[in-house]
Amino acid sequence: MTYSALQLDGLKEIMNIGGGHAATSISQLVNKPINMHVPEIKILTYQALYQQIISDDTEVYATFSQVIGDLPGAFLFVLGDQAANQLSTLMLGDSELLPELKRSALNELTNIITNSFLNAIANLVNKQLIASLPQVQYDFFGAVISSTYMALDQYDDQIMVIRNEFIYEEARLDASLFFIPQVGVLEQMLDALGI
Amino acid sequence: MINDEVRVKIADYKITQAPNKLITVGLGSCIGTLVYDERTKIAGLSHIMLPDSTAFTNQTTLNIAKFADSALPKMVAELKKQAPNGHFKAKIVGGANMFNFQSQANSLNIGQRNITAVEAVLKNLRIPVIAKHVGGNSGRTMIVDLAADFDTTVRIVHHDVVHI
Fold it and tell me: Which Pfam family is one of those matched by this entry (chain A) (predicted)?
């Protein structure tokens, strides 16, 4: 798995546009400014992923949404406890939420984020992209992420981690959006951009 | 004696002796396989990701510990070297289908394929599976206490702890 600097820049730009739209959607939904870091694209081993990004035994809210259409893959929106509370409270205006209500809010949030992300990318690369309805699961990060890559036939020891991180009130919101394209999809995206 | 916790990383295996503990975390569709001998108090724990290495043998750097069919025979061979007269038994944990993934190419999801592969390899090696906690759609963490008759704690988020 090797990409040139130009290709990586191209992917970063795709993620920047998609993530920017996603951040705007969250802002509109919660009526608070939400910003985004410059997206991160790294090729990491699982071990490095757990050391540098989120440890494998951290319990997270992970929402999975499958992308169907011309460029298949998946999104995984990962939130820590605190961020999940912050966002669902902002959405529903109540901090004492029932767990089911919180899950439902996070599902809807991911639905909006992934769709605004996909629409932005679809326009950019001129392809049709549709996301399936998201499913939320509260589980160990290691179990969630490794199973997602496996389910998408990404069997390498090293994985390409494409990630946007969001910021709320100048503090890092413990929220990451992972984009996991199926094998060959990144090349198609780059082709569409003429890179 | 120092009581150490030996952590087994994803796509790896470790062998140790009582009174140490063997731990592997974040098992989703992956499987943790414990192979142990009660008399010599030796045990190995493997964390495989995939059932079968045969499709990957053309790769120059194949990680043997990643696949059920290559990891388990190697781990068991090392165990037998250290305990030549061992009567080995096994416990397996994992093989979940997170998010109820639907796979198109194969009728079975990867967790299920991993369970089948691990059980077949152990059968071939003539190692009986004494206990298992597999399937479902939740991630698991596995902690083996070698000093307490290989008691295996299975942790699932938001569920009661299970001992097998």
Answer: CheC
